[in-house]
Amino acid sequence: MRVVIQRVSSASVTIDGIQTAVVGQGLMVLLGIEEDDNQEDVEWLCGKISRLRIFDDKGGVMNLSVTDIKGEILLVSQFTLHASTRKGNRPSYIRSAKPEKAVPLYESFISCLSLETRSTVRTGVFGAMMDIALVNCGPVTIVMDSKNKE
Known about the structure:
Blueprint: E1 2-15, E2 18-23, E3 26-32, H1 39-51, E4 55-56, E5 62-64, E6 72-77, H2 99-117, E7 121-123, E8 131-145
Parallel strand pairs: 3-6, 6-7
Antiparallel strand pairs: 1-2, 1-3, 1-8, 4-5
């Protein structure tokens, strides 16, 4: 399971010209799910995201988590995070989980992240064509992979 986490001033999802989710200060999280991912991956990543200290304290030091600042979270499923570009120029998505595997893990991720952060997690729509708008504050962007726990 792979995530791209961005510290944002605001972020939104628009589908077919209709804005379906909006958040203020907090996190934009893109989530990629692989075929071999499981609940352990969900729990590890949600714990890390909820405790990740990337918001400034009063001294201007990144020392606070999204939970500490009571920030908002926008979570969007993005299968392209597992694109393989080893051969040729057309990415392969063979490692990305099929919907029958990915949807339950995505839903579990939403619940787990909400529980860990004590916050409502706004979402995109799984499998939909979405326009994502965000203001990356900093910029701060972090990539984490549950199979490469750095």
